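Entry 12.
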Amino acid sequence: MRHILILVTAVCVAGCGASARYPVVAGTGPHPVIPQPNGSLIPLVNYVKAKGWPAGAKPIAAEGNSVVAFATGLNHPRWLYVLPNGDVLVAETNAPPRPENNKGIKGWLTNLLTKRAGGAVPSADRITLLRDADGDGIAETQAVFLSGLTSPFGMALVGNALYVANTDGLVRFPYATGQTRIVAPGTKVVALPAGPINHHWTKNVVASKDGRKLFVTIGSNSNELENGITNEKDRAAVWEVDPATGNHRVFASGMRNPVGMAWQPETDALWVAVNERDELGSDLVPDYMTAVRDGGFYGWPYSYFGQHVDTRIEEQMPELVARAIVPDYALGPHTASLGLAYGGKTSLAPGFSNGMFVGQHGSWNRKPRSGYKVIFVPFSGGVPAGVPVDVLSGFIRDNGDAFGRPVGVAIDARGGLLVADDIGNTIWRVTGLAAGR
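Predicted 3D structure (tokens):
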């Protein structure tokens, strides 16, 4: 069996699908190159191999910045939230049991390679609190804040209520400033789409400025509708939720896997990072970030980046395609852009303020690989205004060994950039050299 796996993997990497014809930068920005699809019967598979960080090693910070391990020894940390008092919450989490996801030979191989890449560890199902009381840039307190959750991900505090987006429901907990553990039972606000497929399981949540509305991201149940349209009800969307009643509606739709969300303060617009579809070749489709329009439709599954039709979909919807919104800014094909945080004033080096930080978890369906870093996109007047700049890199070697993979990003109380690394089981903190701690 092991020899068969090695053979199948080698064939998929070397002979299935084609290498990219364009650099990642060509699929980046407001007007990315959108070539013709270049898929294959068996998709190109180019997974990394999870290794973890050797002793003393760390990612590479952009010039003028430094990086330290804010916290180590975590269990698959994926998402971050900074509380008003400066404490940092970390969702230590992974996918729940999904008996109907990735079935068949292709699914078996996908699951095996996902495990190889460090993505199949059991979910710790908890949120951990990190506290740096002495301000030295390293958390000396690491306490279990909430446990017994169900693949938790997004977190949002409104007044004295902490909202946690489990994979199957949005839950509210009472919170008091400074506490290091919540033992009170949660109250379910609204159930979220889950079930035995639950293909994209992560659910994120952010609150409106006045706290009267919550916005929740829900990914699709498939890559390109292979599990049927009935399994996509209310998915591939951003929901708007009334936290007082649980009433909800689809705020925007047609986004294959929306994850990170951030408010842009100049325009008060909600921005979202979206992972686009796979298996159309190494150059398609660019992931993107965009300001979310109320009632907007962004193409999935029928089209991508506006009116580029996905011909794999048997039952087309031309009336929907005609009104598909072109996203604001492409983030490169297959970069798996998950984390999103707006940095107004930061303690990073000059040039790393007033823009979006994006955590790119990295590709599996592209050759050469893309992502596996944190980038910064400068903004002006509330919109992107320049090319991305690498903030944190060095997570993988050329041979595919992965020391870490960045996911969630957040700006801490002193303006440092926090990065969750789910393979390295570390939270990294980036600051400018002149900023000290």
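Annotation: The domain at 2-435 is CATH 2.120.10.30 (Neuraminidase). The CA atoms of residues 220 and 408 lie 20 Å apart.
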